[in-house]
Amino acid sequence: MTVLESIQKSADFLAKRGVESPRLQTELLLAHLLKMPRMNLYLNFERVLTPAETELLREAIMRRSRREPLQHIVGSTSFCGFEMAVNRHTLVPRPETELLAEAGWTFLSAINHPSTALDFGTGTGCLAIALAAKCPEVKIIALDISAEALTLAKENAAKNNVVGRIEFLQSDGFDALNTAQFDLIISNPPYIPTGEIATLQPEVRDFDPRAALDGGMDGLDFYRMLAVRAKAHLKSFGKIMMEFGDGQAEAIRRIFENEKWIVETVKEDYSQRARILIART
């Protein structure tokens, strides 16, 4: 079977199972297996796959047909240009979160004194790693309640050559920090309402860890906690930056303003939806 034939057959199979963008998904899987850029497939349409390559593609397509995320099958994803290993212990980093990282490193880059940052709920470590790479003078602490997530985050830090600039701590909330204070607290906390988790795409519902999704009955539990507890860990003129879900902007603004925060701005994502809240005390 040629490269073109395998793409067409696999894409038809995925389409029948409800996978979005089935041809693109197939091409990405095949390019990964053949260790070539995806666009090079178009220069190799007539190449005949070996039996071993055909079997590897079949296995990958079957996994994807069961709605296992593409990133889990290939083992990694790109975040702000940095390669991040992913697994079932962490959320797969989303493109929208890159905007949160950019807001964070832009703020830190403008500080003219030795600065510190806290990544609250680090997961894969993507936010902490992006900040460390873009702001090499900043001291960063990355927290997560999950030991498995922290193991992966440390591996990602080593892979991206920033392992010495990030301290990883297992912590339930802020408990492990004592009195430490930061110029920036950055977070992509769980924000899906409990009752909506069952309605999510299978790639998210069945493969992302529930603890990284479930934000309580209305999805806002972590924002209430942050509004109360983050103040003690923020330096004067420091900021908190958080991602949130669709339609949650005004409720989160009220939560923070009720705790006497000054909400500076709410930023939109690539689809012009309110996505990031930035506040200071």
Count of individual beta strands: 9
Strand portion, in percent? 15-25%
Strand order of the largest sheet: 5-4-3-6-7-9-8
Mean pLDDT: 96
Counting H and I runs of at least 4 residues, what is the number of helices? Answer: 10
Question: Which sheet architecture does the biggest sheet show?
Answer: 7 strands, mixed
Low-confidence blocks of residues = none
Taken in chain order, the helices and strands follow as HHHHEEHEHEHEEHHEHEE
Gyration radius over CA: 21 Å
> What share of the residues lie within helices?
25-40%
Shape: elongated
Task: Tell me about this structure.
By secondary structure, the chain is an alpha/beta fold. 38% of the residues lie in helices and 19% in strands. The protein contains ten helices and nine strands. It has a seven-stranded mixed β-sheet, with helices on both faces. A two-stranded antiparallel ribbon has the order 1-2. Strand 3, helix 6 and strand 4 form a beta-alpha-beta unit. Helix 1 packs across helix 2, helix 1 runs parallel beside helix 3 and helix 2 crosses helix 3. The termini are far apart.
